[in-house]
Amino acid sequence: xxxxxxxxxxxxxxxxxxxxxxxxxxxxxxxxxxxxxxxxxxxxxxxxxxxxxxxxxxxxxxxxxxxxxxxxxxxxxxxxxxxxxxxxxxxxxxxxxxxxxxxxxxxxxxxxxxxxxxxxxxxxxxxxxxxxxxxxxxxxxxxxxxxxxxxxxxxxxxxxxxxxxxxxxxxxxxxxxxxxxxxxxxxxxxxxxxxxxxxxxxxxxxxxxxxxxxx
Length: 215
Fold this sequence. Notes:
Shape: globular
Number of domains: 1
Structural class: alpha/beta
Helix content: 25-40%
CATH class: Alpha Beta
Order of helices and strands: EHHEHEHEEHEHEHE
Largest sheet: 8 strands, mixed
Distance between the termini: 42 Å
Strand order of the largest sheet: 1-4-3-2-5-6-8-7
Strand content: 15-25%
């Protein structure tokens, strides 16, 4: 972790209670200082080993990317891969998604990626789903108006839940497909490690965009 300190912006949580942290603590990032430019910012929540974001950063050097991952061992792999690739437009936050507002300024993110988030089908864990209303309200404060959430998942049930949630939260849902790899949206798709595994098992990949409209 010390070797990756230059690209790790935050780690852990400011206090034990996540609700208290989200409401009372602010360590807002200064993108100009961090990246040395005024390029647009995009965010992946649950970056895993970093395969998607690294490829995205290589393809789009004029975009700054933030990667959030709670698991320390996993994010360490992603950071080591980023440093090995000498990418200058990627930074990491080893924090729970519940406290994104502590670090990310309002209306500062152009796009949020939710790639194969854990579906958590148990009703008792609904609030922990990354497309629950609790999290969507957080994303709405971070996104610019017209900003986009792009979701990919192999779970049809979770996909249906997410689409209903996006619409209930005031997002406009576009480019819906329940078989991404056979759709018109496959051409520029970056296949994640999970995605390749699911596809090899014959599972169709669901994908959609949720656009934040101005009130």
